[in-house]
């Protein structure tokens, strides 16, 4: 997904009452780094990243082990 140029003004995508800052976008979806979420442009479906999904099911690392 291409990054927006840093000299462009911030762009936002509104879903209901919430606005998401667009950090990356293509013709199908936008990505908001702050929320770490992908949003489908056609129906505003929210998708989580693979990293977020893996973290939901993995155990925390025990540093003292």
Layout of secondary structure:
Layout: E1 11-15, E2 18-22, E3 24-25, E4 29-32, E5 37-40, E6 46-48, H1 50-57
Antiparallel strand pairs: 1-2, 3-4, 4-5, 5-6
Fold and architecture overview:
The chain has 65 residues and is mostly beta strands. The chain has one helix at 50-57; strands at 11-15, 18-22, 24-25, 29-32, 37-40, 46-48. The model has no long low-confidence stretch (mean pLDDT 86). A four-stranded antiparallel β-sheet has the order 3-4-5-6. Strands 1-2 form a two-stranded antiparallel sheet. The radius of gyration is 15 Å and the shape is elongated.
Protein traits:
65 residues; mainly beta; 4-stranded antiparallel beta sheet; two-stranded antiparallel ribbon; 1 helix; 6 strands; 12% helix; elongated
Strand fraction band?
35-45%
Low-confidence segments: none
SSE order, one letter for each helix or strand: EEEEEEH
> How many separate helices?
1
Question: Multimeric state of these chains?
Answer: single chain
Task: Specify the overall morphology.
Answer: elongated
Task: Give me a quick take on this structure.
The protein is mainly beta. The chain is built from 1 helix and 6 strands; from the N terminus they run ββββββα.
